[in-house]
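Dear support,

I submitted the protein below through the web form. The confirmation email said the job was done, but the results page showed an empty box. After a refresh the structure appeared. I'm attaching both so you can tell me whether what I see now is the final result or a partial one.
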Amino acid sequence: MNAQEIIRYIEAEHIKSDLPDIYVGDTVRVGVKIKEGEKFRVQPYEGVVIAKRNGGINETITVRRVFQGVGVERVFLLHSPRIDNIKVLRRGRVRRAKLYYLRDRVGKATRIKQRFDRAL
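What the results page shows now:
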């Protein structure tokens, strides 16, 4: 076995198989595990996927939401043990691979049309 095969073998153990198909423009709810003292709890983070990067074990999504008038973006490593679950709430119809232009928009201008041809 060469080094690449060893890396692929180790990564295969950690890749999650229960993730839904996530596309840019979708509204998702990500359950993030948070440790408080000795206990863990799951805190939901809901927003629009504005970017996807990489592939395999390094795949990430950037989720944007507006909280108390301030735009907040978080990058989630999809196969991380800190991610408890991901639920797609709404499919969005977009024509770009990266939706960074939403950062400059406010209010109703940030809305994305819903897409009905893909199942949730």
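Response: this is the final, complete result; the empty box was a page-load delay. The radius of gyration is 16 Å.
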